[in-house]
Amino acid sequence: MSVGRFCGVGAALAATVAGALLGGGGVAEATFAGQNGLLAYSTNGNCDADAPEGGGCPGFYVEVVNPRQPKQRRAVSPKDATCCAGDPDWSPDGKRLLYDSEGDVFVTRRDRSLSRRLIRRAIEPAWSANGRRLVFARDLHPVGGGRDDRDLFVRSLRGGQARRITRGGGDSADWSSRGEIAFVRTDRRFRTDVYVVRPDGTGLRRLTRGNTGDQPSWSPDGRLLAIERRGSDDRLNIAVIDRQGRLKRTLTREGATDPVWSPDGTRIAFSRRSRRFPISLLYTVRARGGGLRRLLPRLLSVHDLDWQPRPRR
Q1: Of the N and C termini of the chain, which has fewer Cβ atoms inside 10 Å?
Q2: Which CATH number fits domain 3-310: 3.20.20.10, 2.30.30.40, 2.120.10.30, 2.40.50.200?
Q3: pTM for the whole thing?
């Protein structure tokens, strides 16, 4: 569940609601080819696991970490009790990071410098492959609206009028290197499916027929999608489908959400609910299956993953 969906309704309420619901899916954003860089994610630290009774929890903030050196973590969004930041998304060159906070979209450099508000009334941002445009979700009826009252918009990074590209619901967008935008749509019966659409709003196609979660994540070459797929035991796990929606493989069996491809296309990062604590831990698995690894050994709850691309040498 995306932190951004609860921002803008009041930080205290947002933190309370998100704290109760996170541990399901977050929002996994675009993956572009390159060397594997930093992992970005939304977190409220290890508050859910070891906060002193009655001590309360800090707000959610965006943090980055080197997967090979998990102690090298740093926050790139404000980090305090009133903050509600999430849905990070790396630019194709790996130099900038989009995120949403309190119902607006911000952009910052990876060292947290020059952070600024980019778009008001927008959540769940994702870059285009050339870095010149972005797609985001916007609530059409902010007070009392549901997910079917949210649609996708495309806008130039430099500003100008945003173009609405979906009608009938859309969020959790991911813009592929081939120019297609994958997103999810929830119907009146709360069934969620994955669709794709062109940036001009044409070519709408439905890829799944029930039993999916929130997370479409394109592979770096734009040929495959990692999604959350619900099994017979009603748990979400990570599966890979092609551009026509055909199932290629299921990668996890014990519950998993928030899939995102590594820029080199070899691994997929995801979060998994801890068996001992009410938090979601960070793992990676080979994109072809097997090779499960746990990252960030400390009790750090993570959601809304995205993996930084670095130019190939």
Answers
A1: C
A2: 2.120.10.30
A3: 0.86
